[in-house]
Amino acid sequence: MKVILVMAMTVDGMIAKSGDHFPDWTGKGDKRLFMEISKKAGAVIMGSKTYDTLKKPLPDRKTVVLTRNRQRISSDPRVVFSPLCPANLLKELAKEGYKEAILAGGATVNTLFAAAGLIDEMVLTVSPLVFGTGISLFAGEVDMSVELVEHQRLEGGLLCLRYRILSPDAAA
Description:
The chain is an alpha/beta fold. It has a domain at 26-126: Dihydrofolate Reductase, subunit A (3-Layer(aba) Sandwich), CATH 3.40.430. It has five helices and ten strands, in the order E-E-H-E-H-E-E-H-E-H-E-E-E-E-H. The two termini are 24 Å apart.
């Protein structure tokens, strides 16, 4: 299964000012891009803090929320709360017929997938903002080599960067 990390970030690498910072700063071009990519994949994986900032499920997509809190359940069939590790979660999604999944943060979930070597691509939308402090793309040490495969300007001064994650063998 292909996993694509799709995130908006500031030019100083922040994905939010704080854990409850609603992503209303990312611009229309970024929101349109995220919707297009995530609807194509059909499944979006995120952490519980990220999900809680959204306030509602993403339409026309399965939303999988990684959480250790086994008390969290959803009455909405589009939302699944899961305690599974990233590899097992991807196996379950593949059994359901998904070929791609979008990784939508936050930093802790991004780090779990990166540490397990499960991210195939990154699509980063860089917004012309500087937060100075906040939440980085990853929440811990990550060792990945990437290759830029595409870049494009989006409306509002946004820059979209698409990277392929190189295997450790290819990076050496």
